[in-house]
Amino acid sequence: MSVRGARKQYGDFVALDDVSLDIPSGSLTALLGPSGSGKSTLLRSIAGLEELDGGAVLIAGDDVTRVSPQKRDIGFVFQHYAAFKHLTVRKNVAFGLEIRKRPKSEIDDRVDQLLDIVGLTGFQTRFPAQLSGGQRQRMALARALAVDPRVLLLDEPFGALDAKVRADLRTWLRRLHDDVHVTTVLVTHDQQEALDVADRIAVMNAGRIEQVGTPRDLYDRPANDFVMSFLGDVS
Ligand code: ADP
Ligand code: MG
Q1: Residue 234 pLDDT
Q2: Which of 8, 13, 31 to mutate to test the pocket of ligand 1 (most atoms within 8 A of CB)?
Q3: How far apart are CA 185 and CA 205, in angstroms?
């Protein structure tokens, strides 16, 4: 997936300033940067939830810049996940498959597989209110993946949870990604989270990409003072 020359302004404020980024197929890329650097704006633009003022978004070579979010074939998980409260875990995960009228046996197999991967096999008949915060986000990941999206976009999905649960969820995400290999972009302002989980990190600041590379690249060869001091904050 790639973003070419993306530009986005809110009035006079430039939120995305000529952003170009290649996300390799099957990678888990972290979009890392301080609050207000434009991470969510970039992610929402990739999803089609924001309209760019300039530039393009390509998914698997297709220019989707003018394509509606529903037709971009993207899975999205936010910090505060809006589950269907009146549906069980199983029904929540199956939702996207059911509205696509997939055969019941296919839905059952797929849901079983995903619940197994996210460790919620024993929780199928529970309702979202009966899950912990971490379990709810694991359900959200399973639901986003159920329809085999071409790209999975995660915007601070663990941000609202405490440190121990966040650390567990990183492990889950890594395991999930190793199983499913879907091209994933994880937005985070947490350097440690990006370093722990991502194959590649794109560092954002003030609407621009400062550097893209493996965690090792960024540590060994930071492109500038911003990257050096931002990564240096890891405790
Ligand atoms: P991040 O996710 O990195 O914290 P955002 O992409 O949410 O940053 O925001 C980048 C900047 O754009 C912030 O300064 C924010 O205030 C501004 N911004 C985001 N959305 C809007 C909007 N709808 N209207 C005006 N300003 C916005
Ligand atoms: Mg954000």
Answers
A1: 63
A2: 13
A3: 17
